[in-house]
């Protein structure tokens, strides 16, 4: 022990002691005295009664006997006049008085009880110099060290006391037990308890209470209670120890019961009792109990106690009553830093993150500095608001206060950066931590999980396993299982599952539920069900995870069945289970089940929870029951933008575009979802003018479009087709997104160009894509197939597989179609067999239709018919149509009649079938059969669809019907066509008279051929478009044979590229040839 010798020397000089205080007041038995500042010290008699015994001793040498000194020093100790007592001690030394053991003990007591650490050092020096020490001297020093928190010295003196032969007593044990508990030396507490038992002091109030407190602090509450029950007297101190012990081990119910028992016994609670009871209510989330205690506090002397009020703030926050937290705070007359910390924490716990930040800033204006606790809470608030910049400011404050190394604030910082998407900064903060706990490890792992960084997450996990003083816990494995679920990595998930079984034997309910969720997301429903079946305990989260798994994996019936089982087992459905069940009803289009769930929701007043009302509206709308959807919408108290968007989408889905438009226009608030919904409605209903007008209006109202908006518009342009508008949209996409990185948007651009006739731009866009999935490849392959570029189709198909993009059924449809349109029979057959055997893709009707078309076009009509007869699926209209088309090409009237009869039965109102058969008869010269088909159509009320062709000139679309005479440039068009016909005849053109339902008289009229709609559109293009520009014409029906021949001649004569898109494919006419090779 270090003794401050300079201080001791000065203090031993008579009347030279300098008080560290400006003024110290104390009391003697006979007078009041004060010790002024050293500069005002003139004599000992200042402000002191002449009859004071202390003055008499100092002034009268005859009275300076040890017994008098002993009495005076005791009076100084009792009155707290330690400075005066030290002067008396100095006078004794000056007189050379040698005190005996009793007086020495009094002097030690004088210095030990002053509460000044330097005085305690003096007391220890005097104690060590005592030739003989009694129990009082030992107890005095032990108590002195105990008061100053010098617990090691307490324990050391205790053992030295026993070695010296002095037995500890009821004054010794309380201080020693407290010291052992403070040092967390609980073995020492037990040893002291043994001595107490031997000395028969267990029932002593003070000794027993100290043991109760010691065991309670350790968490050995049962031992504490056993000692408590043997104490002679029950008071608020030992009762508080029991309450605190129960609180420490989380036995809240017993703590609360003991608190109530204290009141029954009439013990008046102190501030500790009230604070502990408030904490009990906080932990039990008992708002009612907390309010009862608060009511008692108001009528007690502790209503304004800062310690109790801080506990109240925390209790109200944890019980979800943030308003009461604020009221307690505002009524406090005195606040400390803990108060502000509690209030900031309360706002965070209530989810009022912005308010928490405001309190944090306000705290500084009142002069309180940041500490590890309020900084950690503030970081949580920044996380909740995703205020990264504010979080960085807090980080700076941590650095300035050297708290970025602290485990509490550092862990909160790691969590903030991780959840805000700055995982690199989170890792940097993590590396700075001197100590890392489970929270910091889990926060960083969760950050990498959120970013989908599989390798980094598992690298951290392995490092955590090797780290000291920390082990992976439930949250660690939950994060890893979440990663496996999000990545659909079932193999890794199964490895973790096996590891959990090895580590824990039987897994925890939280991990079991995460396993169910992981297996469900990976599509392993049998594994998910197996985990669920083996669970000893199931909660609503477990049930919800499994129900959601079945619903998301398109097993809606099973999801609804589990929803019923959940209720049978006594688990009340919540908004999450109801949401999954309603989604299942939507998928099943089962309105009756949905109505029953609606009734359950209404009976339990759950309609405003978890978006259930949104799902109800969606369910009714999808089932076509707009009356119920509208009623549910009308009953919604707050018609926010979300439910209005659902209603707009519902009207769109039911083809009620006028109602959708009306609701959209009435909406006070609209977001991008609103605009996308109405634009989708216009697209669905083919309203070209409306869709582009609303898109323009959307931009005028400063609503930023997104990729979904552009995808809808591009798809609409592709369906028209409208190349010019599609190009403008592509330009907008490039301006907004630079290079569109969305595979969906880029694919929509590819598809638009392909369907609008510019296959070259489609390919350029495709080649620029950074990420190309199966859908993107399909769009390009289908585009080439429709444009008759079979060579490119097969090259892309091969390249796709080289890049390990697996073709699907749609890919094979396009490839087989391309083979069929170019007569590549052998390649088509090989690809069909590869689809079945190598790729394990089950053939659909459409694939068999392609095979019929492939064989039929190549002239293998009987083989084509055999495919239909032997295919495992029932032939559809398209299948028999392919055979009829092949019979038209090869002029097989007999088989054509067979195919046509099937088509007349399956699809009697489709005029195309009648026209195709009539063409076959016309080619064969069977005009009577042509007339018979015409009569059949008349009897059945079937009318031939009028052929319509159109061409875009600038921003205007020009439509032509056969024989159209109304166009403003009608005269120039027919002059151009007559001129072209003369030129064509010079090159060998002969009109093709083998086409549909025309009179022989009409066919003899050369002018008749000029009136075909596609020829009129081509002529307008030649007149109106710049020289050498491509002419693009679109037709709603198949291009007729004569116009196909004419277009080839015109392309050669005018040196123009002409592209005609009919209802089946594109024809690229250039230099007298067509891309289809006349194989169409």
TrEMBL record:
One Gene Ontology BP term is: RNA modification
Per UniProt, the keywords (alphabetical) are: Repeat
List GO molecular-function terms, semicolon-separated. RNA binding; zinc ion binding
Superkingdom field? Eukaryota
Q: Where is the DYW domain?
A: 988-1080
SUPFAM superfamilies reported in the protein's UniProt record: HCP-like, TPR-like
Each PPR repeat, start to end? 134-168, 235-269, 305-335, 336-370, 406-436, 437-472, 539-573, 640-670, 671-705, 773-807
A Pfam family of the record is: PPR_2
Q: What is this protein called?
A: DYW domain-containing protein
């Amino acid at each position: 022990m270090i003794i401050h010798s300079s201080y001791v020397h000065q203090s031993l000089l008579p009347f030279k002691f300098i008080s560290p205080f400006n003024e110290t007041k104390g009391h003697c038995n006979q007078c009041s005295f004060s010790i002024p500042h050293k500069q005002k010290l003139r004599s000992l008699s200042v402000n002191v009664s002449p009859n004071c015994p202390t003055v008499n001793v100092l002034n009268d040498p005859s009275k300076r006997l040890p017994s008098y000194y002993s009495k005076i020093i005791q009076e100084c100790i009792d009155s707290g006049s330690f400075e005066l007592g030290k002067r008396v001690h100095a006078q004794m030394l000056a007189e050379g008085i040698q005190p005996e053991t009793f007086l020495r003990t009094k002097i030690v007591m004088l210095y030990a009880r002053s509460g000044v650490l330097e005085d305690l050092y003096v007391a220890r020096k005097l104690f060590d110099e005592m030739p003989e020490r009694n129990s009082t001297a030992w107890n005095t020093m032990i108590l002195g060290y105990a008061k100053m928190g010098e617990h090691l010295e307490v324990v050391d003196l205790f053992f030295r006391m026993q070695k010296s032969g002095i037995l500890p007593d009821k004054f010794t044990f309380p201080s020693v037990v407290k010291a052992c508990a403070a040092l967390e030396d609980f073995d020492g507490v037990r040893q002291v308890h043994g001595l107490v038992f031997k000395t028969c002091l267990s029932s002593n109030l003070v000794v027993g209470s100290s043991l109760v407190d010691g065991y309670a602090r350790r968490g050995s509450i049962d031992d504490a209670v056993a000692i408590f029950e043997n104490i002679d007297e029950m008071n608020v101190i030992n009762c508080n120890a029991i309450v605190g012990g129960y609180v420490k081990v989380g036995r809240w119910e017993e703590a609360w019961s003991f608190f109530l028992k204290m009141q029954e016994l009439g013990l008046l609670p102190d501030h500790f009792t009230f604070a502990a009871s408030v904490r009990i209510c906080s932990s039990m989330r008992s708002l009612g109990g907390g309010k009862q205690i608060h009511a008692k506090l108001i009528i007690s002397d502790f209503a304004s106690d800062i310690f109790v009020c801080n506990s109240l703030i925390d209790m109200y926050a944890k019980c979800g009553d943030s308003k009461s937290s604020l009221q307690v705070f505002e009524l406090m007359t005195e606040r400390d830093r803990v108060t502000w910390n509690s209030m900031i924490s309360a706002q965070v716990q209530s989810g009022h993150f912005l308010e928490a930040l405001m309190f944090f800033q306000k705290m500084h204006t009142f002069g309180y500095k940041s500490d590890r606790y309020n900084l950690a809470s503030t970081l949580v608030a920044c996380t909740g608001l995703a205020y990264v910049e504010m979080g960085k400011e807090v980080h700076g404050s941590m650095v300035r206060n050297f708290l970025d190394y602290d485990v509490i604030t550092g862990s909160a910082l790691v969590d903030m950066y991780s959840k805000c998407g700055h995982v690199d900064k989170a890792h940097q903060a993590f590396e700075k931590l001197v100590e890392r706990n489970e929270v910091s490890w889990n926060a960083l792992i969760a950050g990498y999980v959120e970013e989908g960084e599989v390798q980094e997450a598992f690298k951290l996990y392995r490092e955590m396993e090797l780290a000291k003083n920390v082990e992976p816990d439930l949250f660690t494995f939950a994060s890893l299982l979440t990663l496996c679920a999000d990545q659909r990595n079932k193999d890794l998930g199964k490895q973790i599952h096996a590891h959990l079984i090895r580590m824990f034997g039987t897994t925890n309910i939280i991990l079991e539920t995460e396993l169910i969720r992981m297996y469900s997301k990976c599509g392993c429903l049998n594994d998910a069900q197996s985990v669920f079946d083996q669970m000893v305990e199931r909660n609503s989260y477990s049930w919800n995870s499994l129900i959601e798994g079945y619903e998301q994996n398109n097993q809606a019936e099973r999801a609804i069945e589990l929803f019923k089982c959940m209720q049978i087992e006594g688990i009340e459905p919540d908004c999450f289970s109801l949401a999954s069940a309603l989604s299942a009803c939507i998928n099943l289009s089962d309105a009756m089940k949905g109505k029953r769930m609606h009734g359950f929701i209404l009976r339990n007043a759950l309609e405003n929870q978890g978006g259930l009302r949104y799902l109800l509206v969606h369910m009714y709308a999808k089932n076509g029951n707009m009356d119920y959807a509208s009623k549910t919408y009308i009953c919604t108290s707050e018609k926010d933008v979300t439910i209005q968007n659902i209603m707009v989408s519902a009207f769109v889905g039911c083809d009620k575009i006028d109602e959708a438009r009306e609701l959209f226009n009435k909406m006070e608030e609209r977001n991008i979802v609103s605009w996308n919904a109405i634009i989708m409605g216009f697209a669905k209903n083919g309203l070209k003018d409306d869709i582009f007008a609303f898109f323009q209006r959307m931009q005028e109202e400063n609503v930023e479009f997104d990729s979904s908006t552009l995808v809808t518009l591009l798809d609409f342009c592709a369906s028209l087709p409208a190349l010019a508008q599609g190009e403008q949209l592509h330009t907008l996409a490039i301006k907004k997104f630079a290079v569109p990185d969305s595979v969906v948007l880029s694919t929509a651009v590819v598809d638009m160009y392909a369907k609008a006739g510019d296959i070259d731009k489609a390919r350029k866009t495709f080649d620029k894509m950074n990420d190309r999935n199966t859908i993107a490849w399909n769009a390009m392959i289908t585009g080439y197939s429709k444009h008759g570029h079979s060579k490119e189709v097969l090259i892309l198909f091969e390249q796709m597989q080289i890049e390990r993009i697996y073709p699907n059924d749609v890919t094979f449809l396009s490839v087989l179609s391309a083979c069929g349109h170019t007569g590549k029979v052998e390649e088509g057959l090989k690809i069909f067999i590869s689809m079945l055997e190598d790729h394990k893709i089950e053939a659909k009707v459409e694939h068999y239709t392609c095979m019929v078309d492939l064989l039929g076009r190549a002239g293998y009509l009987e083989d084509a018919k055999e495919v239909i007869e032997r295919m495992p699926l029932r032939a559809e209209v398209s299948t028999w149509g392919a055979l009829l088309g092949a019979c038209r090409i090869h002029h097989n009237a007999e088989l054509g009649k067979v195919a046509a009869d099937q088509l007349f039965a399956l699809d009697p109102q489709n005029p195309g079938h009648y026209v195709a058969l009539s063409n076959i008869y016309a080619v064969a010269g069977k005009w009577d059969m042509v007339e018979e088909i015409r009569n059949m159509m008349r009897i059945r009320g079937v009318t031939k669809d009028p052929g319509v062709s159109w061409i875009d000139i600038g921003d205007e679309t020009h439509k032509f019907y056969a024989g159209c005479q109304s166009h403003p440039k009608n005269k120039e068009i027919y002059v151009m066509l007559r001129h072209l016909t003369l030129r064509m005849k010079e090159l060998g053109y002969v009109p093709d008279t083998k086409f549909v339902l025309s009179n022989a008289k009409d066919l003899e009229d050369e002018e008749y051929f000029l009136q075909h709609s596609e020829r009129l559109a081509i002529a307008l293009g030649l007149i109106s478009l710049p020289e050498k520009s491509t002419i693009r014409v679109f037709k709603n029906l198949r291009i007729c044979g004569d116009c196909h021949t004419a277009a080839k001649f015109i392309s050669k004569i005018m040196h123009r590229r002409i592209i005609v898109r009919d209802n089946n494919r594109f024809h690229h006419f250039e230099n007298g040839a067509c891309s289809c090779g006349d194989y169409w």
